[in-house]
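Milestone 3.1: sequence recovery, worked example.
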């Protein structure tokens, strides 16, 4: 079993409604991660379209699998790498849209997650997801959440109790709420004894939405192993899953959780 993994978070400024350009930029940043031997790479929320495409949500939404996941699948297959992204997904019912994260490896789509806690106008734009599950890639047990959900400890805890040892947050998190991003991302790591990868957007859209950047990789003690400082950047860190076990033994929140009171899996 391989306990050490090189993981990466991509931070990028996206051009609204320019799928081709955004995919090319994402590939460039993925290639930077590959040059540093990364085997798990996380992209931001709605990286392929930009976030503020609300007037054209249906136009730019895709099926999974579909155009964007096929594009990333080719990269994953060529380089034997795992890629996590997040796009607008067309639902099974015509006219419905989800904000959906997915995990792609060389052998295909390993799983997906539809955002359940929607921020502000997302409640008008999107349908809510209704399921949490851990996605396995070798000894990595990946719990997916999206952006705003970094402030909801319940989802992270349920995923941890389902076996997650790494929590991943593709995000388009706002600049003025950096204080939430900073504390919540480290809190989710500490309280669950997990690694956290939070890949955030940078730049601005429609002169009113300003993204916070500061994508980060965090260890189970809440230490920030790497943090992005540039508009377009790929940060990389080596994680050792043995630290998950060590932290959960040193601070045994999961052992001491009174499940009979909280019923976290129901």
């Amino acid at each position: 079993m391989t306990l050490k993994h090189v993981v990466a978070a991509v931070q990028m400024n996206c051009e609204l409604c320019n799928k081709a350009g955004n995919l090319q930029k994402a590939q460039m940043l993925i290639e930077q991660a590959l040059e540093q031997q990364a085997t798990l790479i996380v992209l931001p929320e709605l990286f392929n379209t930009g976030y503020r495409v609300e007037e054209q949500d249906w136009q730019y939404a895709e099926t999974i699998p579909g155009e964007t996941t096929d594009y990333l699948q080719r990269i994953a297959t060529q380089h034997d790498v795992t890629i996590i992204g997040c796009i607008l997904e067309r639902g099974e019912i015509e006219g419905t849209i989800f904000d959906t994260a997915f995990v792609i490896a060389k052998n295909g789509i390993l799983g997906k997650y539809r955002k359940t806690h929607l921020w502000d106008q997302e409640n008008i734009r999107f349908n809510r997801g209704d399921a949490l599950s851990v996605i396995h890639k070798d000894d990595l047990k990946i719990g997916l959440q999206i952006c705003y959900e970094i402030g909801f400890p319940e989802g992270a805890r349920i995923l941890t109790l389902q076996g997650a040892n790494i929590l991943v947050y593709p995000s388009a998190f706002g600049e003025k709420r950096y204080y939430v991003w900073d504390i919540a991302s480290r809190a989710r790591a500490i309280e669950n004894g997990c690694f956290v990868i939070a890949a955030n957007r940078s730049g601005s859209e429609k002169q009113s939405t300003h993204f916070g950047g500061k994508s980060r990789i965090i260890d189970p003690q809440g230490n920030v192993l790497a943090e992005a400082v540039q508009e377009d950047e790929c940060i990389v860190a080596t994680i050792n899953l043995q630290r998950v076990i060590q932290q959960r033994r040193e601070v045994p929140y999961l052992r001491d959780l009174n499940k009979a009171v909280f019923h976290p899996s129901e």
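The chain has a mean pLDDT of 96. The domain at 4-262 is CATH 3.60.110.10 (Nitrilase/N-carbamoyl-D-aminoacid amidohydrolase).
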